[in-house]
Amino acid sequence: MRLLHTGDWHVGKTLARHSRIAEAREVLSELAEIAATEQVDVVLVAGDIFDQLSPSAEAEAVVYDALVDFERRKIPVVVISGNHDHAHRWRALEPLLARFAIQVVPEPRRPDSGGIVEIRARDGSTSLQVAALPWVPINRLVAAQQLLGLAEQPFQTYATEMARILGALCQGFDHAKCNVLAAHVFVSGATVAGSERALSIGDLYAVTPQAIPVTPQYVALGHVHKAQRVPGVAVPARYSGSLLQLDFGEVDQEKSVAIVDLEPGKPAEVREVPIRGGRRLRDVRGTLEELAEYASSVDGDFLRVVLECEALQPGLGDTVRELLPNALQVTLDYPREEVERELLDLKELTTRDLFSRYYRGRHASEPEKELLDLLDELVDEVT
N vs C: which end of the chain shows fewer Cβ within 10 Å? Predict the structure, then answer.
């Protein structure tokens, strides 16, 4: 049995107001080609298909076109919802998508009531059971426990309660078949990419590696955007990572999907296949003269630029963007005067000063007087 593990597509995400829809379409087409070339039996999507709970029609078209592409190639798909996905929207689509061999698990379910999804191998030699656990927010944790028939106990911690849920879900495995756990969850010890939502990857939502049951042959995780094997888990457990470099916290990260080969009762064999599509994110630093030399080598990369200069001058940010049109962020590195160092204590700054500092950092130039006057008017109005 061979599966392709992917997730964290985040279709609809923008970067500094730049749409990345075309890139999402490109990498999802590449994903389908990889699945076909590898002759996988199933594609497993571990959550965060969309970037927003209410995605745009354009984002929905990209995702549904991709799912239809898998159906056209006769490749079944299993989808679980993540914290960026609207579980009720996916539940509404579930019966329709099932007609296209796309099985959706939008919310926690009992193993015998849709919590375990079964897929037959292409050659009919075996079957794969996927124990599927979508994102469980804290306010839905008790409901998930009740749904799985767990005995009521005094609430302890998110990590402890999730361990009980994961264990109960995997109890339904038939070990004469291939067994995989798919979960959208943060496992402590994983290295975050820097583009995830801070709250959902903090201690509040962390589960320990020991919370992952030892019964599955492979654990397909979603939520963290950096592809990696999670240390401390007794069985192979991986985050597939995002398909695109989602923001500048992911500079230099290589993107990939996992191909997993399974036989009943044997350890999983896992390898990565790189994703080549999408625009790269790059950090660039130097003087104006040095930045001018980069212009012919950055291709379509999105850039975060640090301009080294002797002093703050109006229009430097615009000059950098003329040299490097793909520069999405421009900051200046110049010697600070002693007076400016004293202003670093934000408590001492006026609203006008705070805005001026923000504007200089964002646009590498001083804000116009008319803009500052308007700010003063608005502050007076609300205070």
Answer: C
Inter-residue contact 287 to 252 (CB < 8 Å): no
Cβ pair 180, 220 in contact under 8 A: yes
SS3 for 139?
helix
DSSP 222: E
pLDDT tier at 314, thresholds 50, 70, 90: confident
Q: Distance from first CA to last CA of the chain, Å, rounded?
A: 65
Q: For 25-161, list the strands marked E by DSSP.
A: 42-45, 77-80, 102-105, 116-120, 127-133
Element (H, E) at 182: strand 178-184
Average confidence (pLDDT) over 146-161: 70
Tell me what the pLDDT averaged over the chain comes to.
Answer: 90
Query: In terms of DSSP bridges, do strands 281-286 and 218-222 run parallel, antiparallel, or are they unpaired?
Result: unpaired
**Distance between CA atoms of 233 and 52, rounded to whole angstroms?**
31
Structure-derived torsion over alpha carbons of residues 54, 43, 246, 280, reported in degrees to the nearest 10 = -140
pLDDT score of 338: 47
Tokens of 133: 């656990």
Angle of helix 57-72 relative to helix 21-37, nearest 10 degrees, comes to 10
From CA 302, how far away is CA 317, in angstroms rounded? 16
DSSP at 111: G
Residue the block writes with tokens 């803009």? 371
Secondary structure (3-state) at 9:
coil
